[in-house]
């Protein structure tokens, strides 16, 4: 017996299929919640992390999570939301996160010295373990391929890590403006 499920996404459109999208869940592992310390100088802190299904419709959930946790003025949070969304879409397009049951973990950490917000996106890894996210040369005739270019352009720092479990972490930081 097959059940028909109506799944509403945030665009107010509905799709009819036999798949129920799992709900986002809080990520509780310390590795997923820990901020990346690019220079290894100190423990940079812990962020707030959620794990969401590797489904493009979940990008709106990701953007709300970033906006809520960052708690910054709209003009500052928009950059974070856009860059995080680009990394999420890359994970959904290029990694095993797109497969049934796949997921993406997103961590938002508000760090000090200097004041900055760090976001890391952890995917389920690629089929080809040698593949790594990188900035592609811009090509006006190509559709897509600008996600890492945007991260490179708008983030103050960014990088990638490959975990022993094969998962890939792409992280970026944006410095926060001092209060007026």
UniProtKB/TrEMBL annotation:
Histidine kinase/HSP90-like ATPase domain location: 53-170
Pfam assignment, any one: HATPase_c_2
GO molecular function, one term: protein serine/threonine kinase activity
Keywords: ATP-binding, Kinase, Nucleotide-binding, Serine/threonine-protein kinase, Transferase
Annotated spans, Disordered: 1-46
Domain of life: Bacteria
Name used for this protein in its record: ATP-binding protein
Lyase is among the record's keywords: no
Gene3D superfamilies: Histidine kinase-like ATPase, C-terminal domain
Species for this entry: Marinitenerispora sediminis
